[in-house]
Amino acid sequence: LVWTELQSLKSAALSHNRIEAFDGGLEGLANHALLQTVELDYNNISCTFMSGFPFSANIRVINLEGNRLQGSLVLNANFVGDLLVQANLANNQLTRVYLERRI
Length: 103
Hints:
By secondary structure, this protein is mainly beta. It is built from two helices and six strands; from the N terminus they run ββαββαββ. The chain has helices at 47-51, 77-80, and strands spanning 11-13, 37-39, 61-63, 70-75, 86-88, 93-99. The strands form two sheets. It has a four-stranded parallel β-sheet, with no helix packed on it. It has a two-stranded parallel sheet with strand order 4-6.
């Protein structure tokens, strides 16, 4: 699938797969200015994956429930942007979640 051809994409539902690493296969999602919702629940995503995935700053909803997130997770401004209203991180092994905002 070539994500760049889906110019009007507003929502990506990728739940219940085996996604575990950012190897460029999902790279095109990061460039969608209209993308607002990303469902990545019940995959095998780790904190390492999250630190390498630059979602669009227009993301409003992200679902990461039931992955392999553990320890501390830093959501920086490059990842969440200013429009994020819902982040589902349930059923992971997180001990801390930090939100870094732009100055």
